[in-house]
Design brief:
This protein is mainly beta. It contains one helix and 15 strands. The chain has two domains: about 150 residues, Sandwich (Immunoglobulin-like), CATH 2.60.40; about 35 residues, no CATH class.
Length: about 200
């Protein structure tokens, strides 16, 4: 990419998640009633077996936000419209903040990197987990652990899928073609998990 402005971060997300949450949390809910009785006998628990009793279950789903940032090498966030130059090295940071009181399990992130704009720096994948609500500085100051690019049991990998595209995936992506069967991405309650990697502006 010729010297210009940082406009599009080329992010596709697949957040297939459902959480059981406690009352009072922001959620979308659907309530189902049990009809009938134990052994086919209507009883008081089910208020006559018509679904109006206390034998009801509520499934709650919470939408967790996925954030993608561009940062310079010092960790400063680069807003949209920031001037960038060919040959400049920057970081992309992806993170999900689990603000709930239960673990978020089996999350998947897919980031399609346009190689006509950015060249991935091999071996630069890293991850950190910090407390929920951490600001940009606290995320950057987290204890980052190196990840490999290959599909080898860690939570993230990189795969060249087209001559001009790299696919960065986090979490299990079984079903994609070609697959990148990473380890599952699970984020503990009240924690924020981030992934970062370096690219060179083209």
């Amino acid at each position: 990419m010729a010297p210009g402005k940082l406009r599009h971060l080329c992010l596709e997300t697949v957040l297939g998640l459902m959480l059981l949450v406690y009352p009072g949390m922001a959620a979308h809910a659907a309530t189902n009633s049990a009809i009938g009785g134990i052994g086919g006998i209507n009883n008081g628990t089910l208020s006559g077996g018509d679904g109006t009793g206390t034998a009801q279950i509520t499934l709650n789903t919470v939408q967790l936000a996925l954030v993608k940032q561009a940062r310079d090498l010092s960790g400063t966030v680069l807003p949209n419209g920031t001037n960038v130059a060919a040959g400049q090295v920057i970081y992309f940071v992806l993170y999900i903040d689990n603000t709930t009181s239960v673990q978020a399990t089996n999350l998947t992130i897919i980031d399609l990197l346009d190689l006509t704009q950015f060249s991935y720096t091999a071996g630069s994948l890293e991850t950190t987990t910090v407390p929920s609500g951490s600001n940009n500085a606290a995320i950057w100051a987290g204890a980052w652990t190196a990840l490999t690019d290959a599909v080898d049991g860690n939570i993230a990998s990189r795969l060249n899928i087209l001559p001009a595209q790299d696919r960065i995936t986090v979490g299990n992506t079984t079903g994609l073609s070609p697959a990148q069967a990473n380890a599952p991405l699970n984020i503990p309650a009240g924690q924020l998990t981030a992934i970062r990697f370096r690219v060179v502006v083209q």
